[in-house]
Amino acid sequence: MFNFVGTPVELKELESYERDGKRFYLVDDNLEYRSVTTVTSIRSKKSIAEWRKRVGEEVANATSARASRRGTTLHAIIESYLKNELQKINEDPLPTTLFKICKSTLDRINNIHALEAPLYSHYLRLAGRVDCICEFDGILSIVDFKSATKVKEEEWIENYFVQETAYAAMYYEITGIKVEQIVTIIATEDGECQVFIKRDLDKYFSLLKEYIKEFEDANTHE
């Protein structure tokens, strides 16, 4: 059984919406912040556009839709499991298999602060939803759950670490609680569960500020 410790302050729900292909969150009545995911995808936009051109729009759309369904269903299964609610899995066999691949890694989680929780930062002017804030191997962590077709090289997923660091900064700003590490769990169709643990958050916070500037510069010149 997973233990829930909760948060010292309530994490208020945020309305989100799309505008001009970018996601925003309404933090207050007249205050909207950009999605951290939108900002941290800035460096991958060119490679994604090249991939779509190479494979064609039809294949790209089908591949993206499949990945989205796989990820959404896997997240739902993991959330149910961590809430101690998982009774029987009657889902698409692919995400069910991916859950089984990463289950032993999920069992390293406990003392959960929040699941699928809204966060924001007035300092960063960003907002988003964090997968999990918990202790991983006994250390307070931001944990992100991913799925992939193939095993990923670490240099391909810098934006994951930057995004997770943004959530750590947001949680500290809201609660005063310092997150010690970020953890990325990737269940792959290759049958592997990749686990990336990073504790040098200052490095990724500096990168986050670079990402924000690149995003702002790109959108200023659109």
Q: Which helices and strands, and how do they pair?
A:
Blueprint: E1 15-19, E2 22-28, E3 31-35, H1 36-40, H2 45-55, H3 57-82, H4 93-106, E4 109-121, E5 126-136, E6 139-148, H5 158-175, E7 181-188, E8 193-198, H6 201-220
Class inferred from helices and paired strands: alpha+beta
Overall geometric form: globular
Q: Overall mean pLDDT score? A: 92
Backbone CA Rg: 17 Å
The tally of helices reads 6
Task: Bin the helical content.
Answer: 40-55%
Please outline the major beta sheet. Answer: 8 strands, mixed
Query: How many domains comprise the coordinates?
Result: 1
CATH topology: Lambda Exonuclease, Chain A
CATH class bucket = Alpha Beta
Regions with little confidence, pLDDT below 50 for 5+ residues:
none
Rounded to the nearest angstrom, the distance between the terminal CA atoms is 50 Å
Number of strands: 8
H/E order of the elements?
EEEHHHHEEEHEEH
Percent of sequence in beta strands: 25-35%
Architecture per CATH nomenclature, i.e. the level-2 architecture: Alpha-Beta Complex
Plain-language structure description:
The protein is of the alpha+beta class and 222 residues long. It contains six helices and eight strands; from the N terminus they run βββααααβββαββα. It has helices spanning 36-40, 45-55, 57-82, 93-106, 158-175, 201-220; strands at residues 15-19, 22-28, 31-35, 109-121, 126-136, 139-148, 181-188, 193-198. Strands 1, 2, 3, 4, 5, 6, 7 and 8 form an eight-stranded mixed β-sheet that branches. Strand 2 and strand 3 (31-35) form a beta hairpin.
